[in-house]
Amino acid sequence: MIRLSLEPFVLAVAFALAMPVACSATAQDKPAEFSGPQVGEKLTPFTAQGVLGDSAGKEFDLVASAAGKPVVIVFVHEANRPSIGLARIVGSYAASKKASGLTSGLIFLSADATTTEAFIQRAAGALPQGLPVGISTDGQEGPGAYGLNRKVQMTILIGKENKVAANFALVQPSAQADAPKIIQAIAEATGIEPPTKEELQRLVAPPRR
Fold first, then answer.
1. Is the Cα dihedral 140, 74, 88, 180 positive or negative?
2. Rounded to the nearest 5°, which phi and psi values hold at 125?
3. Phi, psi angles (nearest 5°) of residue 136
4. pLDDT 10s digits, 98-134
5. How far is CA 136 from the centre of its chain?
6. I need a surface site. Which of 144, 159, 169, 185 has the fewest CB within 10 A?
7. Strand, helix or coil for residue 204
């Protein structure tokens, strides 16, 4: 079920990013939950119904669109301030690298597509721009071949050559601890220099009203 109180959270995320990463631990540092195909496994095509971006009102397939080039797929299992905040940072960074050949998208998992679409429309200002945002056509479980885990709040997959290059299954998403690692993995898959801390902070500037 999609749950989010649309309160200002991006400033808190920016503050967290400015703090030393070593001072916090997340689910990534604990015995991991597994969700989605693992590193080295195949990324299979799947469809989502577009709500925002150029794909609004149309079905899109991120894996097919990438055609073997680097791709970032952000699955949101549960929408809340931490998951939406991290999705904004990762999605904004990935969208900014489109010219480098990177395909990316934000996919919500939900058993009630109508309610989720209305939520996405209301939350549009808090979501990343410049990439397709949609709802999985396979319901709350997501694509059957992916084996996504409902115990996590987010599953972020980074692919290259139609295989998983990095997998982040996040029980408790944290912008401070998770965003630098995910963005580093995106940069490595794309073959570009990772952003500086100052560039990361600019990614979480408050959205324009």
1. positive
2. -70, -20
3. -60, 135
4. 999 999 999 999 999 999 999 999 999 999 999 999 9
5. 13
6. 144
7. coil
